[in-house]
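Sanity check

After download, print the first record. It should look like this:
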Amino acid sequence: MNIAYFDCFSGISGDMCLGALISAGVDFELLKGELTKLPVQGYVLRCEKVMRSGITAANIFVDMLDEAQPERYLADIKRVIDNSELPERVKEKSKAVFDRLAAAEAIVHDTTPEHVQFHEVGAVDAIVDVVGTVLGLNLLGVQRVYASPLPMGKGFIKCMHGTIPSPAPATLEILHNVPIYGAGIEGELVTPTGAALISTLADAFIDLPALVVKKVGYGAGKKVMEQPNLLRLIVGDKHDQHLHPHEHKHGESNHSHPHQHGHSHT
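Expected C-alpha cells:
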C-alpha cells in the first residue's frame, strides 16, 4: 500500500503542500497542465527551488495577473471544480475540503456555509492549492494519508478582517478532533487552507508509521523562521514488520475508518 505521511514540524499551508508534492517527484509541468482543466484564469503557477537550513525545498507561488476576478461563494467554487475534466475522485475530495473550510468560516462569522464569500484573489489561490494537492497525491498513486499532530503558533495574525489571534479562529474550528500542540512560535503555522486539506485527507494523526521510504519532498513556507519553515512529505510502502504475509489484510483494519483523527493520541 502506497502511504503519504505529512510531517508538519513547522505547520502546513496549501502552497507548502504543493511544494512538498513537487519536491517528492510530482512533475510540475504535468500538474500545471492538469490544473488548466479548471475554468479559472488570471494566474500563473510558479515553482522556485530554495534552501532552508541547508535543505533544498520547492517554493510555490500563485502569481495573480491584473484580470478582475469574480466574487466566489461555495457553490461557485464547486461549479468550477465540477466543470473541469479532472478525475471524479479528485473532484470529490477537493469539494470536501472546501465544504470543511466554508463550514468553519460560517461558524466564526455567524453565517451559513453558502453565504461565506471567498476573497477574490484568495479564492484562486485556494482553488489552485486545494485541487493541486489532491491531484498531486493522485498522481503519486497515494492510497492512504497520515499526518503528524499539528503545531500551533501564538500571538496575532494580520488579515483582511483586521488583527486576529493565532491560531486563526477558522483554523481551530476546522481542527476539531485533530491533535494539536503549542509550538511557542509567533505567527501563523497552520493556515485555514492547510488545516482543511490535512483534516479532510488524513486518515489519522500519528507518529511516523512503519513504511519503506520511496520518496521524500520538502515544501517551503513563505515566512523565514529560526527553524526551517518546511513541510516534509514522506511517501512509501506500508511495512508490517510483525505480520506474516497472510495477516496483512487483518492488520490494515486498524486504520480503515476515515477521519478517526488522533486516536493514537488520547
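If your output differs, re-run the checksum step. Summary of this record's structure: The longest strand covers residues 43-52.
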